[in-house]
Amino acid sequence: MEAIATREACGLTLAKLGRVNKNIVVLDADLSESTKSIIFAKEFPERFFNYGIAEQNMMAQAAGIASCGKVVFAHTFAIFASGRAWEQVRNGITAGGFNVKIVGSHGGLSVGADGLSHQCIEDISLMRTIPGMVVIVPSDGIETEKVIEKAVEYTGPVYIRTSRAKSPVVNNKDYKFEIGKGNLLRDGTDVAIIACGIMVEPALNAAKALAGSGIRARVINIACIKPIDKEMIIKAARDTGAIITAEDHTVIGGLGSAVAEVLGEEYPVPLKRIGVLDRFGESGEPDELFKKNGLTTENIIEEAKRIIKRK
Amino acid sequence: MKTETDQAERKLKKTACGIRRNIIKMLTESKSGHTGGSLSAVDILTSLYFYKMRYKPSEPYWTDRDRFVLSKGHAAPALYAVLSEAGYFPKEELATLRKLGSRLQGHPDRRKLPGVEASTGSLGQGISIACGIALCGKHIDKKSYRVYALLGDGENQEGEVWEAAMSAAHYHLDNLCAVLDYNGLQIDGKVLDVMNIDPISDKWRAFGWNVMEADGHSIGELTKVLDEAETVKGRPSIIIAKTIKGKGVSFMEGKVKYHGTAPTYEECEKGLCELDEYEKNINREGA
């Protein structure tokens, strides 16, 4: 499989699953071209509903449709799914116990030129706080396909963040995604890099470069931020003694915080969270934004070397 | 024929009276909750549950059931009293309202109580959920069930209500009928003073709905417009039902105070006496 945006992999998978599962219903709020829900819409117009620019109504209607036994996928940009319609997702969908999958596309700084209003760097935090919500950030096309398949099988609310930018392949094609499980991509005993989404590739690249300096870095892809794979995190802490997290998201409340919570309660070791600091994004190319905010392979390498000294 | 109709109406009036008594009792017991807006909705709910809707309390998730969504979730006591009257759960359970471990939460919780279609209380969301159910019934499952939603008047101040209204007309949801409990009061005072929603009928009409008006305490008028709504094709219907907050208990009627206040034991006694008297009058009418 070649590099593909996770939003596109999501659209393709939903269309594929829609052929066998007639219970799948897809919704969008005037962004179907961008979220790629249009791929499903074209094939199954009778099971696709556009709500126009009205995300709050779409989320609550998703709850109503799900109450009739459907598996509903509600798409919009991550900022609107997790921000504007947060309370509809909390009270309407999750507190109602409805089987709705919320797909927030265009997550993170990697959205690029549209600037801060569209670069959602808070969605993982916002969704993670809702009781019972499963939060997943797939890293490539392979993983997105598996995630969507699992989301359909699983009964209950799930938030899935997809990205606008293309994601290179980082997972094996026979990889089996499980809710609550991480994926060990590379073994190592000196330091562990735990990443999600679009930051998994730089994490792998950093590990390769570190090997050249004699540092053996473990790389773990944690797509399922909630529930998180505590066992894998504790094992990494025990085996390596130092953890780095990397995410295209604010360091407040996202993957880094989730890992910190596990370490703090279960097995404290030095931790460095790589992510957007307490500030908004701005317009620019994704790679320029990543560089400016310290989200590059080089940043990971540098922090790995530094954290090893803190052990 | 008229006598038969009168008799049926009298029966519904008596049912409504019993429901009012249970609301007063359960709120007194819980010491908190929304009295005024529960009482204003009683005749509407009675007309829906004991005249119009098709459902099976023994099979709460029967797929062909008509659905009711209480968008003004704070009127939960009225819904609970009606559901227990309909046989969804024993009446004794009403005394557990708002107590720890109860299925009767302060606002309806779908996961806890069969018969509750949506967890509501956050205003504006219930009408959207009702639209979703209607959309699924009409366009996906092609079923003949109807969906009813009860809105508060102040609730119309929420933007989501209008998003929902727009989408229901867009998708021609003629299996959807909303009822607006227009009692004119909200927490901070008169709806007119806090944030005027009028001319409310014109607004719903402009959004493409079939709009009807009724006295929200006249069982006769309510059952008539509910029947009429069913004949309207191609668009959703809304009944603007003029009501009185606290209806049925004279000293609560039209009082903002009782929006979110439960009766004291004394008030409860007084209220129950008034309702007993009212029921006697209904019986006399029938004699």
User: Which structural class do you get from the secondary structure elements of chain A?
Assistant: alpha/beta
The number of distinct helices of chain B, counting runs of at least 4 residues, comes to: 10
> Strand order, biggest sheet of chain A?
3-2-4-5-7-6-12
The largest contact between protein chains, plus residue counts on each side, is:
A-B, 28 and 35 residues
Mean pLDDT of chain B: 96
What is the general shape of chain B?
Answer: globular
Give the count of helical stretches of chain A. 13
Major sheet attributes of chain A? 7 strands, mixed
The termini of chain A sit apart by 39 Å
Low-pLDDT runs of 5+ residues of chain B are none
Strand content of chain A: 15-25%
Summed over residues and divided by their number, the pLDDT of chain A gives a mean of: 97
Order of helices and strands of chain B: HHHEHHEHEEEHHEHEH
Classify the helix fraction of chain B into a percent range.
40-55%
Instruction: Supply the helix-strand structural class of chain B.
Output: alpha/beta
Question: Helicity level of chain A, as a percent range?
Answer: 40-55%
Helix and strand string of chain A, N-terminal first?
EHEHHEHEHHEHEHEEEEHEEHEHEHH
Number of strands of chain B: 7
Number of strand elements of chain A? 14
Spatial strand arrangement across the major sheet of chain B: 1-2-3-7-6
- Unreliable stretches covering 5 or more consecutive residues of chain A: none
